[in-house]
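Supplementary Methods. Inverse-folding protocol.

Structures were first reduced to a discrete structure-token string of length 191. This string, shown here, constituted the complete conditioning input.
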């Protein structure tokens, strides 16, 4: 029985030492309990800093355009923190010749600006282009099927294999585009 108490006492001492080591408040010893929170806080802070910096740069750019006589609206920040470029005030009849030089002069304020983009659902696009490829193949054209990895390259390369001088090809292409629901403007799509 004495051995049982001794074994129990040793086990308790080991557990207490282990718990004391894990609960250390020392900055010299890394703690597993705070790692996730600190990473999340750092990531959120970094993202917020970038968004704030981008917004400040775009506001400086916008003010510079206004100083050049270009009437623009304030830039819009979307729900994901992406900062849009300023738009001309409604009813403005300015063309690129008028605002182009001001834009170039003010571009210095955009140095280091990080443009964000919304993520595109490639699977939805891929589905449409698979329908397009199948439709063209059904009409007798030899068109490879795209994959998620090759979709961007496929969009430009498959068109090279079509005879655009033949009116039937253009008609078939427009029918397949309509069926697939891709490229709203087929004339721009085939170029």
């Amino acid at each position: 029985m004495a051995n049982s108490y001794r074994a129990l006492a040793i086990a308790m001492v080991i557990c207490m030492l282990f718990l004391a080591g894990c609960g250390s408040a020392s900055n010299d010893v890394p703690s597993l309990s705070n790692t996730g929170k600190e990473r999340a806080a750092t990531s959120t802070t970094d993202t917020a800093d970038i968004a704030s910096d981008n917004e400040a740069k775009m506001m400086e750019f916008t003010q510079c355009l206004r100083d050049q006589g270009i009437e623009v609206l304030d830039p819009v920040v979307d729900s994901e923190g992406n900062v849009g470029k300023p738009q001309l005030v409604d009813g403005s009849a300015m063309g690129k010749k008028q605002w182009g030089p001001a834009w170039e002069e003010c571009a210095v304020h955009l140095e280091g600006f990080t443009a964000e983009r919304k993520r595109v659902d490639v699977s939805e696009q891929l589905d449409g282009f698979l329908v397009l490829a199948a439709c063209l193949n059904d009409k007798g054209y030899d068109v490879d099927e795209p994959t998620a990895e090759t979709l961007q390259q496929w969009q430009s390369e498959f068109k090279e294999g079509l005879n655009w001088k033949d009116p039937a090809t253009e008609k078939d292409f427009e029918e397949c585009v309509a069926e697939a629901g891709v490229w709203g403007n087929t004339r721009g799509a085939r170029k």
